From TrEMBL:
PROSITE patterns to which the protein is assigned, alphabetical: ABC_TRANSPORTER_1, ABC_TRANSPORTER_2
Name of this chain's protein: ABC-type dipeptide transporter
Residues in coiled coil: none
Quaternary structure note: The complex is composed of two ATP-binding proteins (DppD and DppF), two transmembrane proteins (DppB and DppC) and a solute-binding protein (DppA1-A5). Five orthologous SBPs (DppA1-A5) are present in P.aeruginosa, which increases the substrate specificity of the DppBCDF transporter.
MF term (GO), any: ATP hydrolysis activity
PANTHER family associated with the record: D,D-DIPEPTIDE TRANSPORT ATP-BINDING PROTEIN DDPF-RELATED, TRANSPORT ATP-BINDING PROTEIN
Length: 467
């Protein structure tokens, strides 16, 4: 008989009366890694959030039982839950930018956990904070203590979240897409870290992921979710060798191919020459030379019309800053030539009509979507700004692009917080596509998407590129 840390039985979760998780039952054993996989919107994150009762009580009803070490969490008191959260059970959220406090430094955010749960202060807290930053691969951790979230790259912010979750050496770590924002080399380091901690602390790990390569590397057992139900449970090797459910086979076989799109154009669409983006480190005192962070330093390249150019590198290497400079969202030096126009000479007023031809999909879908606007308003905003079509024509255009990115047009009246991370990224892509631009800058465009949707989006982008 297995020693279970978590036992979930017939879990049913409804939002405003609409059930989204239908009778889920699963066990998480002590010292094991259980992976919960499935497409965006399948109920993975809702199931995980139910364990810690993090769903909004006013709009959510939960039925069934969730027993943690003998305690029923569905009926647990707020005091019992407070002693559990962040201490015996910790969670890494999918979107670090919306989870970290933008007004607090790295040192303060990690230190708050150490003070609250461990009673560590002063030098002891500082020492432990530095140890955690080193564990998750933060370069020169001492220099990052006073940094704020907006001063870190997406991957660095995710590593800070992981450090915070590991601070109390929890019995159970719930990891919701823990390596989504990390580059490949750091993904391997984080996986090795999680595996070693799991063995050393006999820690259980609930891994929520659409990255089947990650799941295969670290998980002992796998639960496959679809439309709020678990359709298959098996040990990891068995699932990958001989999946029984058709949906499990679909997930495993959904690997985008890397064949390039043949180009029928040869003229240059974008030319970047000696581009520099330097950020000053404070002011220069007593005639000393000012110090700079050279985020982008002398970059040059050309992009032909109809071609795809990939820019790769680790988190913090300057990839996103380069994209922001091309879009004139940050100050830069050098030449940026788009078609026949020199963007570096254009004021923000002159840039406005050009932005119809030059669109972007940002890395963080939640942070780039207005929480006060419906999906239809978000996607149609560009059409309204550039005075394209009648209201009825705009509505039909929104419906069309939602279908193209695999979203139900009937959801267009909802708000971003009502969608999963992957669904929000698809909304971001739809917003960029709606203006039919000449160039789209994609900053980690599929990082938040599961494999089947990645394949759809890559196929969609290739098809649009050909047309």
């Amino acid at each position: 008989m297995h020693d279970n840390l978590i036992e979930i039985r017939d879990l049913r979760v409804a939002f405003n009366g609409r059930e989204v998780v239908h009778g889920v039952s699963l066990d998480i054993r002590r010292g094991e890694c259980l992976a919960l996989v499935g497409e965006s919107g399948s109920g993975k994150s809702v199931t995980a959030h139910s364990i810690l009762r993090l769903l909004p009580a006013k709009t959510v009803s939960t039925q069934g039982s969730i027993r943690y070490d003998g305690l029923d969490l569905v009926s647990a008191s707020d005091k019992q839950l407070r002693s559990l959260r962040g201490n015996r059970v910790a969670m890494i959220f999918q979107e670090p930018m919306s989870s970290l406090n933008p007004l607090h430094t790295v040192e303060k955010q990690i230190g708050e956990i150490l003070v609250t749960h461990k009673g560590l202060k002063g030098k002891a807290a500082l020492t432990r904070t530095l140890e955690l930053l080193e564990l998750v691969g933060i370069r020169d951790p001492l220099s990052r203590l006073k940094a704020y979230p907006h001063q870190l790259s997406g991957g660095q912010r995710q590593r800070i979240m992981i450090a915070m979750a590991l601070a109390n050496e929890p019995d159970l770590l719930i990891a919701d897409e823990p390596t989504t924002a990390l580059d490949v080399t750091v993904q391997v380091k984080i996986l090795e870290l999680l595996k070693s901690l799991q063995q050393r602390l006999n820690m259980s790990l609930l891994l929520i992921s659409h990255d089947l390569n990650l799941v295969r590397r670290i998980a002992q057992r796998v639960c496959v979710m679809r439309e709020g139900e678990i359709v298959e449970q098996a040990d990891c090797q068995t699932l990958f060798d001989s999946p029984q459910h058709p949906y499990s086979r679909l997930l495993i076989n959904a690997e985008p191919d890397g064949e390039p799109v043949p180009s029928t154009h040869s003229n240059t669409l974008l030319s970047v020459q000696d581009l520099k983006v330097w950020f000053p480190l404070g002011k220069a005192w007593f005639k000393r030379e000012p110090q700079y962070v050279k985020a982008v330093d002398g970059v040059s390249f050309e992009l032909l019309k109809g071609k795809t150019l990939g820019i790769v590198g680790e988190s913090g290497s300057g990839k996103s800053t380069l994209g922001q400079a091309i879009l004139r969202l940050v100050d830069s030096e050098g030449s940026i030539r788009f078609g026949t126009k020199e963007l570096s000479l254009h004021s923000q007023h002159l840039m406005r009509p050009l932005r119809r031809q030059l669109q972007v999909v940002f890395q963080d879908p939640f942070g780039s979507l207005s929480p006060r606007m419906t999906v239809e308003q978000i996607i149609a905003e560009g059409l309204v700004t550039h005075n394209i079509g009648t209201p009825k024509e705009r509505e039909q255009t929104v419906i069309r692009v939602l279908q193209e990115v695999g979203l139900d047009p009937a959801t267009r009246h909802r708000y971003p917080h009502e969608f999963s991370g992957g669904q929000r990224q698809r909304i971001s892509i739809a917003r960029a596509l709606v203006l039919e631009p000449d160039l789209i800058l994609l900053d980690e465009p599929t990082s938040a998407l599961d494999r089947t949707v990645q394949k759809q989006i890559v196929a969609l982008l290739r098809d649009l590129q050909i047309r």
